[in-house]
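Researcher: Go.
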Amino acid sequence: MLGMVEFFRKGVDTQARQGFLWFPVFFALGIIMYFTLYKSVGYYGSVSAVLCSFFLIIGSWRFEIMRLLVIGIFLFACGFLVAQLRTHSVYTPVLSKKMQPVNVEGVIDYAEPLEDGKGQRLVLRDVIIERLEAYDTPRKIRVTFRKTLDKPYRSGQRISFLGGLSRPSPSLIPGGFDFQRYLYFQGIGATGFSFGAAEVLDDTERRAFFSALREAIGRKVLSNSAEHIQARSFAAAMLIGERGSMAEANREAMRKAGLAHMLAISGLHIGLFSGVVFFLIRCALAIFPTIALNYPIKKMAAVVAMGAAVFYMFMAGASIPSQRAVLMALVFYLAIILDRTPLSMRLVAFAAMVVLLLAPESLLNVSFQLSFSAVAALVYFYDVTSGFWKRLYGHQNPLVRIGFYLLGVSATTCVATIATAPFTLYHFQELATYGLLGNLLAMPVLSFIVMPFAVISYVLMPLGLEQYPLWIVGFGGELIFKIAHFVSSLEGAVVNVGQWDLAVLLCFSAASILMILVRGWIKVLAIFPFIAAFWFIFTTSLPFFLVASSGKLAAFYDGEQLSFSTLRAERFTREVWQRSYGLAGMQSNKWQKEGGETVFCGEAGCRVRYEEHIIDIIDRAKDFPESCESGADVVIVKEPVNILCQGAEIINFYDLRYRGAHGLYEAHGRIKVRHIEPFAPRFDLPKPAGIN
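Model: Structure:
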C-alpha cells in the first residue's frame, strides 16, 4: 500500500515541473466558461472570485499540492474576468432590424476586392445611418459593392450611398459558427450591400501608413495586366494577405487538397518570410570575413528577421493569426539571441497566454485552435524524436539531405494533420484525405519559390523592379493551384462527416492536452477523454428538422437525405445545412406538394411525419387553430400568434426573429427543441467611452 502511495506521489511530483505549461489551459477554461454563462454572471461576481482565489494562494503557499490547485482556480477566474473585460471594451451596438433602403455615410476603414474584380467589400467606421440614433449606430459596418468599379474605393475616403443593412447573422444551425459573435469582436454591428455606386464626399483624410502601403502594393500586383489574374491574386494573397480576388474554384481546390493553410497568413508564412530574411542576411554577412569573424552574425540576422516578421505582419493586415505567429517568431529569434533553445513547449505556452490575455475571443476561432494544436503537437513530436533526427542529419551526403527534407515534410504534415483533424472535422465537417500528397508536392514550391521571391519583391519595389520577382511568385501560385486541382480531383479526396457536438471537441482537446503536457505514467489518463469523444460521436444525433430564422426555409432529414421546403430562398443557408450533415455537394431535394408519405404540403403550409411525431409549418396565423386541433406535436407559424396549444410546442414569428434558427431533435420518444440566441453580452459597468 505504501508503495502505491509513493508511486502515485512521484507521478504527481513530476507534473509540478510542468506547472507553467498548464497556465494557458486553466486560463482558457475560464474563457470558455464566460462564453457559456456570459448572460448570467456579472463583474462583481468574477472580480470577487479573482480576489478570493488570490488570497487563497497566499494562505496555501507552503502546501505545494494545495497551492497548485488554487493557482489553477485563480487562472480560471482570471480567464473569466479577462473575457468579460474584453467583451466590454469592444462593445458595439448591433442593428436590431433590417433597414432597406437607407442612406449610409462613413469612412472606409478597409477595402477588399471581390472575386475577379467584381466589386469590393468595405468596412466603414464613423458611420451615420439614416433614421438611426447615434447610440444605436454600430461602430463599424461591412458593406458589399457588387458592380465592377472604374476606380476602386480606398481606405480613408468618406463615402455616401443608398443600401440595405441588417444585423449580422448568428449561427445558421444549433452548434454552428456564430458569425455575429465573430463580427462583434471586430466592432462590426451590421452588414449589408449597396444599390449602386457610392459618392465620395471627402478624400483628404490621412490614412495609416501600412494601410496606404498595402493598397498601393495591391494595385501594383492586381492591375499590371488582364492576363494571369489568378497568378496575380495568389501573389496578392502572399504579399498583403488579400484573398478576395481569388477565384472560388481555386480556393475550393486548395481546401480539398489540404492546402488551405497556404492562403491564410499565419505561422507558416511568418516563419518562411522571416526565415528567408534570416538566411539571406546571415549569408550576406558571412561573405565578409572581417564581419563574420568578429561579430555574432547569427544574432544580427535574428534581429533583422524579427523586424521582417513585424513588417510582414502589418503588410498582411495584422490579423489575429498573424499577430500570434509574430509573437512566437519574436520569442524564437530572441531565444537565438540569448543562446537558448528556440523550440520548446514553454514558448508555445507563453505565446498562447499572451494571445488569450490580449484577445480571449480568439480561443473560439478555428485559426487559434488549428495553429496551436499543430504547433504544440509538432514541438512535442520533435522533442520526443530529436535523437533520431540528429543522427539522420549527421550524414553529409546531399542525397541523404534531400531524403531528410522529404521525410521531415512528411512527418510534419502527418503530425499536423492528426493534431488538427478533430478541429477541422468539427468546424468544417470534412477532411482532406490526400493532404500529405498535396503538401509534399506544394510545400517545396511555397518554401523555395514563392516566399523567397516575395521577400525579393519587397526589396525591389522602391526601385520599380518588382515585376520580375512578382512574376515568379505568380508562377509559383499557378503551380500550386495546378497541384491543388490535381489532388482534389482524385477519387475520395475529401471525407465528409455530420456536425459534431461541442462535447466531442472538448474531449479530443482534453486527450491531446493530457498526452502532450503530462509526464510519466499519468499520461495514460488521456485514454479516457479519447474514448469519451468517440462515445459522443456515435451517440449524439443531428436534428431531424430545421427552420431558418427568416422562416423562409425549412429542412427535413430522414437519416439519409436532406430535403428542403424551397430551393429558391436562402441558398447559403442550404449549403451550410448540407455541409453540417456531411452531405456537401449533393443534389438538393424539394418537398412534394401532394402525395408525399413523410412530407406533404398544401395551401396552408406543410406537414412532416417523423416516427410518431407530427410537425406543422404554416404560413398564416389564421390557420394555427386548425393545426393545433389536428394533434401536431410542434407547430411553426411564420406570423405572430398569442394562442396556446395544449400538448404542442409552438415556434412563432418572434421566436424565429429573436432566437434564430431552430432544430428539432428526437430523444427518448419526445421532441427536444434547440434554438440559437444572438450574442448579447451583459454589462454591469457603464458602456465604453463614446457609446451612449
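Model: The chain has five domains: 19-89, 99-207, 239-355+431-487, 502-539, 545-675.
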